[in-house]
Q: What sequence folds into this?
């Protein structure tokens, strides 16, 4: 690896392949069926998102509402679990509880995006109850939210930078001063933002100098995967799990 392992979550021999939402290319994102397919394909790192229902159940789901990907409707935060569990992703697959996913796939490590403030305390409570500190990395676009999670949980919790933290790291790579949260263990970033490249040699060099891994999302093209791996990224998140597996096999780094 390019950096010293700062947290057991990151202990993986070679670049980390992440199945984004379980491998969202076929429309069954964030379902047990998608996660099972990724596991059967050899993936041990899965990216997912969490929301909390009106009665406090933590579900693996990306959007704030059921409308886009299920046959249900309404805001998850306004609905009880009894209603959310009736919805079917692509008309087929139920919305899973995150706690049940931890039990169903005991060898999987999860990259969890907290989509709403209401998910923070239930997620930390679940991690404590199940003692799965080494299996979860918590992230959010909201840097303040993930920083609060880190303060509440302490160093046992692996966290990535939010948008503000990534911006600070990008500014540092250009030679500008910027405050950075020291407790993060990785920077999870898009290839570019608003047409401006985020991931380049200087960004990766700055991250590695600070002991941070760099994971890039969401990369679905084999040429882009090879380019990023040549630059030295430490992980790639993809909807196309077969493509990333083939790329890593070609490079001799699929494990």
A:
């Amino acid at each position: 690896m390019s950096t010293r392992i700062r947290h057991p979550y990151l202990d993986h021999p070679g670049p980390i392949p992440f199945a984004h939402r379980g491998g969202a290319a076929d429309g069954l994102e964030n379902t047990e069926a998608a996660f099972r397919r990724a596991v059967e394909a050899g993936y041990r790192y899965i990216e997912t998102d969490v929301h909390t229902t009106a009665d406090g159940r933590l579900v693996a789901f990306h959007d704030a509402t059921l409308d886009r990907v299920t046959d249900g409707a309404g805001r998850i935060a306004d609905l009880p679990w009894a209603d959310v569990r009736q919805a079917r992703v692509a008309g087929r697959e139920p919305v899973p509880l995150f706690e049940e996913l931890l039990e169903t796939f005991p060898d999987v490590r999860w990259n969890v995006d907290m989509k709403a403030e209401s998910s923070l305390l239930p997620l930390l409570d679940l991690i404590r109850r199940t003692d799965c500190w080494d299996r979860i990395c918590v992230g959010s676009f909201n840097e303040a939210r993930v920083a609060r999670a880190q303060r509440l949980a302490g160093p046992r919790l692996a966290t990535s930078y939010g948008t503000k933290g990534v911006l600070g790291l990008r500014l540092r790579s250009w030679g500008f001063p910027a405050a950075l949260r020291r407790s993060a263990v990785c920077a999870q970033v898009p290839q570019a933002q608003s047409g401006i490249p985020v991931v380049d040699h200087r960004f990766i060099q700055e991250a590695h100098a600070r002991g941070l891994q760099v994971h890039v999302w969401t990369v679905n093209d084999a040429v882009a995967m090879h380019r990023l791996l040549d630059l030295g990224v430490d992980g790639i998140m993809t909807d196309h799990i077969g493509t990333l597996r083939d790329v890593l096999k070609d490079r001799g780094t699929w494990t």
